[in-house]
Amino acid sequence: MKKLIFLLAFTTFLCSCEDDNDNGEIATIRINHYQSTAIGFAPQFAFLAQEGSNLNTDTWVNFFHPIEGFNYELGYTYTLAVKKETIANPPEDGSSTQYTLLEVTSKEKVNDDTTFDIRLKLDDINFVNTSSGFKILNAITINCGVLCQELENKLQNNSDLTGTFKHIDQDTFELVALN
User: Strands (DSSP E) along the chain, which ranges?
Assistant: First the structure.
């Protein structure tokens, strides 16, 4: 009888521990086919995301959270099922929410002619490195063609600058206009 009581108590304890860790909710998030430049703790890329009432609208917001298990590829728009869990004691400079991929419900390649805007400079913070060509945050090469000289001039003289781009591949964007 003591063994049975112990077994029931132990099972109850395990179930209650499992419930404590199951504080998450399931959410649907859309991730855009390119990332924005942003300033978090430093200049960085951020996903452009839709969630909740913004799903399937024209509204995209910067999303700074990593999504555990998600392998992002430029040029594709994703719809994801994720688990959102609250982190009890997050690091001082970290998020209080953890996102874990449950399923990629859709992955759609965008048309090669699709254009998109990326901020290249914001309030004199330059997101473009020019030491060896033009690279956005040392990650994405800008193929600027006939716009290279104009890009260089505007990076030096403007406090804010946005470029309109097309995808070439995972590491290169084609600059089609400067705004």
Answer: 25-39, 43-51, 61-63, 67-68, 76-86, 97-109, 116-122, 125-126, 128-129, 135-136, 140-143, 161-169, 172-178
Structure-token pair, residue 48: 């452009």
Domain boundary (59, 94, 109) is at 109
Amino acid (1-letter code) at residue 76: Y
- Assign 157 to helix, strand or coil: helix
2 within a domain of the structure (yes/no): no
Residue 29, in any domain of the structure: yes
Q: Which of 48, 81, 109 is the last residue of a domain?
A: 109
Whether this prediction's pTM lies above 0.85 is answered by no
Name residue, tokens 């006939």: 146
pLDDT on residue 23? 63
> Using an 8 Å Cβ cutoff, are 122 and 37 in contact?
yes
pLDDT in tens, 21-47: 456 899 999 999 999 999 988 999 999
* Residue owning tokens 């869990």: 85
Distance, CA of 17 to CA of 37 (rounded, Å): 40
Of 105 and 92, the structure prediction assigns the larger pLDDT to 105
Range of the structural domain that residue 157 is part of: 116-178
Same domain, 150 and 127: yes
